[in-house]
Design a protein that fits this description.
mainly alpha; two-stranded antiparallel ribbon
């Protein structure tokens, strides 16, 4: 089991996704529903879209080591049911966050196309879609943006819920001695 200053890495590593995943979910919500701030926070959401799954992976890796340590110390053949449940929440959250990355980039590409079309039509790009006849893709882009936006919102919300459930099962193990 890897340690830092004689402390297992897992209790230290789990606090990174506890901060990053809800921050990502909140910023995705702001990005989707407040178009004027999209250009200002888009880069931050993109960075968090990559950092959050990396942080979850670190927590999963260190949690696996800690669970193996507890299993060996207790003389059992494998992980307890509570550890398995906790691990499953983390695994699901990781894959939800991985799925968020391409959906996020698709929405960002559509938003960039919308802004470009609006700029060419002489609009600021902050408000509604350009209704210029020069942009025949405007209605289709808007529909696809709505669908992809709903997917992005659902994945971000699901990840936020999963970080809560994973944290709850982990805290229950520690504070109620269910390991």
């Amino acid at each position: 089991m890897k340690t830092i200053l004689d402390l297992p890495i897992h209790p230290l590593a789990v606090h990174v996704p506890i901060v990053l995943v809800p921050a990502l979910a909140l910023l995705v919500l702001l990005y989707l529903f407040i178009p004027p701030i999209r250009q200002r926070i888009g880069w931050l959401v993109t960075v968090l879209a990559f950092l959050a799954p990396a942080a979850v992976y670190l927590a999963m890796w260190s949690g696996g080591q800690l669970a193996d340590y507890y299993a060996a110390a207790s003389g059992t053949d494998g992980w307890s049911d509570t550890i398995k449940a906790h691990s499953q929440w983390g695994n699901r959250m990781f894959w939800v966050l991985i799925g968020l990355i391409p959906a996020w980039f698709l929405f960002g590409a559509l938003e960039r196309g919308r802004r470009t079309a609006a700029a060419e039509a002489g609009q600021t790009g902050e408000g509604e879609e350009a209704s210029s006849p020069d942009d025949p893709a405007a209605k289709g882009r808007r529909l696809v943006m709505i669908v992809v936006g709903i997917i992005v919102l659902a994945l971000a919300g699901l990840a936020g819920w999963m970080v809560f459930e994973s944290g709850t099962t982990g805290a229950d193990m520690v504070w109620e001695n269910k390991i």
